[in-house]
Amino acid sequence: MDVPYYPINDYEPLIKGLVIGGLGITHVFLAQFAIGGGMLMCYFQWLAQTGRSPVARQFLDGYFKILVLISFVVGALTGVAMWFTTIQVSPRTIGVMVDEFHWVWATEWTFFCLEVVAGYAFYRCGRNLPDRSRMTLLLLYTVGAWFSLFWINGILSWQLTPGQWGEDRSVWSGFFNPSFWPSLIFRTITSLTIASLAACVVINTMTELRRDLRRELINRAAFCLSPMLLMPALGYWYLNVIPPDSRSWVEGGSAAMTMFMGIAVAASLLIGGYALVGLIAQRLYINGATATLLLALAFGATAGGEFVREGVRKPFTVREYLFSNSIRADEVALLREQGSVTADPFPLRNAGIYANEQLRLGAKVYRFQCSICHSMGGVNGLTHLAGTWTTDQKRMNIAKLQNTKPFMPPFAGNAEELEALVQLIEWHAAGMPRTWETTSNATVLAEIRQWLDEAGTESATRREVALIREER
Ligand code: HEC
Fold this sequence. Notes:
By secondary structure, the chain is an all-alpha fold. It has helices at residues 16-49, 56-60, 64-89, 91-100, 102-125, 131-160, 165-168, 171-175, 180-204, 211-223, 231-241, 244-253, 255-281, 288-311, 332-338, 357-370, 382-385, 391-399, 401-404, 415-429, 442-455, 461-471; strands at residues 316-318, 322-323.
């Protein structure tokens, strides 16, 4: 069995997880707006052609459709940027996703093509077409957009809850995994919410319309917020199917996860509450400033939600299969024996700055096993986190990494590598002096080996799950 190596980029003082996270949030928000925008436009076209709301057509031919166009163009661009970034940040995860779901990706892409062609055709020619053709184009656009969500949702939800795939490795067990339906329905409602809030902003700018006509349009758009009523139930369903240890983090186990979950829930409640009471029940007029604020809250909710979805997967990118640092769960034991970077062919950047060979080894180990989640001195910086520990505590806590924090993978190298890593952290903490003594104490190495054996090569997640079940 050969463990594959990929070149790893250094984003110090940022960490790779953040780089991909920031981009991902923008992408998801825009892509969901493009989907919800399609649904909303179908609804308004229907209102217009059935005579229910003659001004709806004015809205449709206004600049809302330009916004939708921009969002699917920028959505597509950030989508490509996601590929560009992930192949640098986590090439092996992407590799597994492509391997396992080859035809699903291809199918998703086909629907995306439909979305682009139909959307652009409506944008260019919609104004001069009869109602039937307008509706056909809008429906094609919406079906294309929604199905691209359908396909990608299977792959993304599989990462956290691979379910039966863990045993049978079947594409469809992985695709229709336990969190597939709750997250698909949840995302569909989110898309519609974002689009109707954006519509409220746009309608406010249509000052050529009388105020009562604008109010009518706003009430129509606000009607599309009503599926938000289902969100609490869907959220509950989702939390119920994700692994118990992941759930325990958003329920207070991890301060950051709980906080982001809180932001997502609070922002959604604010939007939902305002929508139900103000817009739907009392038919209030919502002005541009309020609509923009609600839209910003929706962005906050999306950001919080995406952050949590990515975060609670730790220490895996594919649950129980592939760790965040691209080491497969069943490779840890082998790497403990042969060393994690012995076969790593990629040279260090600035290899000359390290004071000795041991530090260079440590730097490779850090790059391979830790740099996906940690920087040295910046975000989640190791010199800071281990700053108060003695040298021996560093050795032990890193050897038992998965016990130190259950959202870290087990250490996957040999004792010499671990010692080199500890030296690297201390050398950085000391301000990277020009000379640094190499350590090679047999007793110390034996002790590290003992700790590694005690920790074992399993992740802590199974144990956590068992503990949580016992508590119940
Ligand atoms: C999957 C992401 C991930 C990986 C991979 C990872 N860590 Fe961590 N680590 C974290 C997070 C998250 C924390 C918590 C930071 C906090 O408490 O603010 C953490 C905390 C720590 C701490 C402080 C623990 C404590 O009890 O305060 C140390 C030391 C540490 N990591 C070392 C490492 C080393 C060394 C590696 C590589 C061998 C590594 N980590 C790999 C995510 C990771």
